[in-house]
Amino acid sequence: MKRSASLLFSTCLIVFLAAGTACRRKGDRPNLLLITMDTTRADRLGCYGCDEAVTPTLDGFAASGVKFNRAYCNVPLTLPSHATILTGLYPPEHGCRVNGAHALDEEISTLAEVFKDHGYQTAAFVAAFVLDRKFGLDRGFETYDDYEVPTSEDIYDDNVMYRYRRGDKVTDAALSWLRRNYRKPFFCWVHYFDPHRPYYFKPSSSPEDLTAPYDAEVAFMDRQVGRLIYFMKEKNLLANTVIVAVGDHGEGLGEHGEEEHGLLLYDSSMRVPLLISRPGHMPESEEAAASVSTVDILPSILDLFGFKLPSRVSGRSFEAALEGKSIPDEAVYLETEFPLTEYGWSPLRGVVTTEWKYVLAPREELYDLKSDPGELDNLADAMPDRAKELAARLRALGDEMEKKEATEVKLDEISRRTLESLGYLGGGGNKKSKSASLRDPKDAIWMRREFVESVEVYQKGNITEAEEKLKQLIRESPESYTFRYKLAKILYEQKRFDDSRREFEEMVKMYPEEYKTHYNLGKTLRELGRPDEAIEEFRRALKFDPEQVEGYNNLGIVLLQLGRLEEAMKAFRSSISLDDEQVDPHNNLGNAFLSLGRTEKAMAEFRRAVEIDPDFFEGRYNLGLTLLRLGQRREAAEQFRESIRLRPDFAPARQKLRECGNVETR
Fold first, then answer.
1. From residue 166, how far is each of 92, 146, 149 by CA, in Å?
2. With left for phi above 0 and alpha for psi between -120 and 50, is residue 657 left, alpha or beta?
3. Residues in a beta bridge with 123
4. Radius of gyration in angstroms for the set of CA atoms belonging to the chain, rounded to a whole number
5. How far is CA 427 from CA 343, 344, 362, in A?
6. One fold for both 451-546 and 563-666?
């Protein structure tokens, strides 16, 4: 039996039905609240027919506005999907095809820029590193509250493979902004990541009697959305606010062998909830049957508000559906590059209508969605004419696109590790594969499961098991850069540097122009006490990617260790010129100046490092050393005390503090 809605649901329904007039009324300046729900399947919400769901807030949206029954994401990955939502362009057009690799081009207009140009306050609150401002979605937002990596205490169970900001913390941040800014028209985007793994609310800890951790997370997210709605009701904002709630993609949950998302294009990961509540003449409990997708959200919102569309928009407006009118069914474009970039397998393209889905793959797929909604019976061989017809529609969609290469993002080591902690390793050399016959992802999906498990068991300390799993995966899929890279990294982290060196050297043979491989081989050779070879590898890495901050910094470290000070300083300066906000190059350049006896210049670099990160204990210590050399004992003692506060076990700072003598500090 379907659970009854809570008091929150009833309240939401009443206020939505009492909403004001149309957005286009002269002088009317409605707000926009965009809620994006990461990893949220439509069929796990009560309003989409899930009897076990506890989603009263979202059910309230559906009861008081328009629910799209066949809404799709265009790509099952967080950054590309959000880029599509915010630009109205398909992934090949905005260029952000996978997580963590590209930034949105500055020439592409965003939804936030349009609203800002119309005098709106704009703010975004995002939950995961994959939407960090460095990927370009912050443009147009006056406030962009992006993700800070949680501390170990903020990881919600013993699985630290994934890290994100929990929904209650995102809601806290959004409410704090709304309390200060609700009196003027605003566009506020709030992003929730909770239904993504890992699951914080286990069935045993969930307030509801839910048997699946995923469903408990969806219920938790719904409660956080409810907090936003309660605030808006309290401040009488709902009558003049357009609310759009949409999933960025779904989750496999074991269907078709896919536990997560990104590799396949089945409805489990492509069909998403899309609910819109609009002040004014919106029918109650309206259900739109036509197929729409996330690329259509921007033009529909701008039509609703009466704003002019940017010059480049590929989505079509479904505003008529918000007035209870029927809209024509059009084919929806689907894609995923993730199999290629992450594993060296075939990318997928697809097209879906209300009746059919076609997927272009090494073994093409065709499904009759009316009779086979679970997509279990592949009809491509049985109905070749239908497959050919839909393949032509897919080609036509592709031909209409103005394709664009996005700007490649240069990640520092901390950012790269953060991305890896979210389960996206970025397969490096895979994207350069020239193989004419790539593996079909649906035949390899079991390897993705094994890989995720290998990372999880490694994080739990089962080193041998993780290593064996990765070796087996390499034997099964030798073309996959990711499996080899993860094994080599594990060996490096375990200080098995000879084993790690052999793995990286093998990868260099396979991917001779890949920065990441040469860079990590250089680090490994440095640990093995082979500095000259390490220098050559760092230089090779920088030849292939001359804009990597850490590459120059590590090159400088080895040169400094060899006493080649001028060369080292040049490398550190190159690193700083690329990113002045990294503490290590400043600290290392300071050490080089100190070795040359150029104390004042050394002090300036150490001060800059401490300015960037006041909790950088090594920078504090080095600044203290410099001040001590200059005879400034009191200031030196202050820095040594700070260093000891930050690292109580750091004996050199205690020794130097004693050398300062009995001095007063401020």
1. 31, 13, 11
2. alpha
3. 143, 188
4. 27
5. 6, 8, 20
6. yes
Pairing relation of β-strands 143-145 and 121-125?
A: parallel
Assign 437 a pLDDT band (cuts: 50, 70, 90).
Answer: confident
Bridge pairing between strands 71-72 and 292-293 = parallel
The per-residue pLDDT for 460 is: 87
Angle, in degrees to the nearest 10, between helices 56-64 and 7-17 = 20
Please report, for the chain, the start and end positions of each structural domain, with discontinuous segments joined by +.
Answer: 36-325, 451-546, 563-666
CB 54 within 8 A of CB 3: yes
Least confident among 411-425, 473-487, 518-532: 411-425
The torsion of the CA quartet 403, 404, 406, 407, rounded to 10 degrees, works out to 160
List, in sequence order, every residue forming a beta bridge with 276; answer none if it has no partner: 66, 244
642: pLDDT confidence band, cut at 50, 70 and 90? very high
Mean pLDDT of 644-666: 83
Q: Would you say residue 218 has pLDDT above 90?
A: yes
DSSP string, 378-391: --TTT-HHHHHHHH
Q: In this model, does residue 542 exceed pLDDT 90?
A: yes
Check if the beta carbon of residue 13 is closer than 8 Å to that of residue 233.
Answer: no
Q: How confident is the model at residue 219 (pLDDT cuts 50, 70, 90)?
A: very high
Q: What are phi and psi of 567, to 5 degrees?
A: -65, -40
Residue type, 492: Y
What's the rounded Cα separation, in Å, for the pair 197 and 518? 32
CATH of domain 451-546: 1.25.40.10
- In total, the chain counts a number of residues equal to 666
Q: Angle at the Cα of 247 (from 246 to 253), degrees rounded to 5?
A: 155
Report residue 447's pLDDT band, with 50, 70 and 90 as the boundaries: very high
Return left, alpha or beta for 257; rule: phi > 0 is left, psi -120 to 50 is alpha, else beta.
left
Q: What is the mean pLDDT of the chain?
A: 87
pLDDT, residue 413, reads 60
User: What are the b/e assignments for 474-507, b being 16+ CB within 10 Å?
Assistant: beebebbbbbbbbbbbbbbeeebbebbbebbeeb
Helix axes 515-527, 481-493, angle to 10 degrees: 20
Q: What is the pLDDT of residues 331-356, one digit of tens each?
A: 999 999 999 999 999 999 999 998 99
pTM reported for the whole predicted model: 0.86
Element (H, E) at 553: helix 549-561
Topology of 36-325 in CATH? Alkaline Phosphatase, subunit A (3.40.720)
- Identity (one letter) of the amino acid at 118? H
Q: What count of Cα atoms within 13 Å lies in the side-chain half-sphere of residue 97?
A: 23
Cβ 72 vs Cβ 352: under 8 Å? yes
Instruction: Report residue 276: phi and psi, to 5°.
Output: -135, 125
| pLDDT exceeds cutoff 50 at 649 | yes
Residue-wise pLDDT for 57-102, tens only, equals 999 989 888 999 999 999 999 999 999 999 999 999 999 988 877 8
Q: What is the 3-state secondary structure (H, E, C) of 298-367?
A: HHHHHHHHCCCCCCCCCCCCCHHHHHCCCCCCCCEEEEECHHHHHHCCCCEEEEECCCEEEEECCCCEEE
Q: What pLDDT is recorded for position 360? A: 97
Q: Give the separation between CA 488 and CA 494, rounded to whole angstroms.
A: 10
Q: Thinking of the domain 563-666, which architecture would CATH place it in? A: Alpha Horseshoe (1.25)
- Can you tell me the distance from the alpha carbon of 577 to that of 591, in angstroms, rounded to the nearest whole number? 18
